[in-house]
């Protein structure tokens, strides 16, 4: 990667950026010393090289995570370094055929250049850089899963029998924490989606907390999902009470939901009560997703839990577009295409690691 680091140095018009891991600052005659920002960027590029050279070194990965957590400036420099993969789009392609438009940002009229000796190496670096960028995205998830009593991976779901006999169906890439020690049976949904089949106990209410909602029941069947722009509760049978917990205002509203009711609360605190067919409540257990007047960003967040590549939507106008439809969770790529194509969304497959949605 030394050629890439040299190019990165040159982008700062000849300013010398010294690697703080391996060398001390050198003052050249007539040259300005490197700024703190430049040194941090050099460190970030060094991390790219070290992680690429030792991809299975767990200790090195932990050191890198510690470096990221030490300073917001480190995180900013790391994000900046990761973006260098975009520059590689201008390098000669390593294949003899131009990629299809739907799977690449390269347009159909780009000329095909001969493969240079270092092109394969550059392509490998691009893949490493994209993968490294995903570390920043997954850091919050790692923290949540450390708090969890139960968690699932991408595309995985679990049925869990709780201590009181209640059944919990945990959706893909989801996590919960359990607390049955007090007068209430408490579940904290940390991430994702869960369906609950609760055994009645009038002496100990069953409570589910999310970032925005507090759901209280005695015995019922209901689904709770945390999306990107909103959270929602839908009821399959029985009755639930829902409170808004945003900004500590637990009593701002209380809404009793019956079978077929769905309550959605947005990040800005507004909420909508709608109807949903009872058989569609928690339909993700059968790999089916039905949504009504949902934001594309929230639907994409559900699809993300079934997709091994990171889904990124560029533009708030696309994210906030409202949709109603049915999607097959067993085929997340097809579902994503069905989700965004009616709104002129284009999906770019970046080296199998990212699905970038643009207009």
UniProtKB/TrEMBL annotation:
Domain of life: Bacteria
Residue span, FecR protein domain: 149-240
Stored PANTHER family: PERIPLASMIC SIGNAL SENSOR AND SIGMA FACTOR ACTIVATOR FECR-RELATED, PROTEIN FECR
Xref: Gene3D superfamilies: 2.60.120.1440, 3.55.50.30
GO molecular function per UniProt: sigma factor antagonist activity
Residue ranges constituting the FecR N-terminal domain according to the UniProt record: 43-83
Name of this chain's protein: FecR protein domain-containing protein
The organism's taxonomic lineage, starting at the top: Bacteria, Pseudomonadati, Pseudomonadota, Gammaproteobacteria, Cellvibrionales
InterPro entries on file: FecR, FecR_N, Ferrdict_sens_TM
């Amino acid at each position: 990667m030394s050629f890439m680091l040299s190019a990165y140095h040159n982008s700062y018009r000849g300013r010398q950026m010294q690697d703080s891991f391996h060398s001390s600052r050198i003052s050249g005659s007539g040259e300005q010393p490197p700024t703190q920002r430049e040194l941090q960027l050099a460190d970030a590029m060094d991390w790219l090289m070290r992680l690429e050279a030792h991809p299975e070194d767990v200790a090195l990965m932990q050191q890198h995570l510690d470096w990221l957590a030490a300073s917001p400036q480190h995180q900013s420099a790391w994000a900046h370094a990761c973006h260098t993969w975009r520059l590689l789009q201008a390098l000669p392609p390593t294949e003899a055929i131009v990629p299809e438009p739907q799977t690449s940002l390269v347009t159909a009229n780009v000329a095909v250049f001969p493969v240079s000796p270092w092109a394969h190496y550059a392509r490998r670096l691009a893949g490493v850089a994209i993968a490294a960028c995903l570390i920043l995205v997954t850091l919050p998830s790692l923290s949540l899963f450390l708090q969890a009593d139960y968690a699932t991976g991408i595309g995985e779901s679990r049925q869990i029998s709780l201590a009181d006999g209640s059944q919990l169906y945990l959706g893909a890439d989801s996590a919960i924490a359990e607390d049955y020690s007090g007068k209430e049976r408490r579940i904290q949904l940390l991430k994702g989606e869960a369906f609950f089949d609760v055994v009645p106990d009038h002496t100990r209410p069953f409570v589910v907390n999310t970032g925005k909602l507090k759901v209280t029941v005695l015995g019922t069947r209901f689904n709770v999902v945390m999306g990107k722009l909103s959270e929602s509760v839908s009821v399959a049978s029985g009755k639930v009470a829902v409170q808004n917990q945003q900004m500590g205002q637990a009593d701002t509203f209380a809404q009793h939901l019956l079978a077929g009711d769905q309550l959605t609360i947005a990040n800005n605190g507004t909420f909508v009560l709608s109807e949903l067919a009872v058989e569609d409540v928690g339909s993700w257990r059968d790999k089916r997703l039905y949504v009504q007047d949902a934001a594309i960003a929230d639907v994409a967040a559900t699809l993300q839990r079934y997709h091994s590549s990171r889904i990124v939507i560029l533009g708030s106008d696309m994210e906030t577009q409202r949709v109603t439809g049915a999607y097959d969770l067993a085929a997340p790529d097809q579902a994503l295409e069905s989700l965004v194509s009616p709104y002129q969304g284009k999906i770019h497959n970046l080296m199998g690691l990212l699905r970038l949605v643009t207009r």
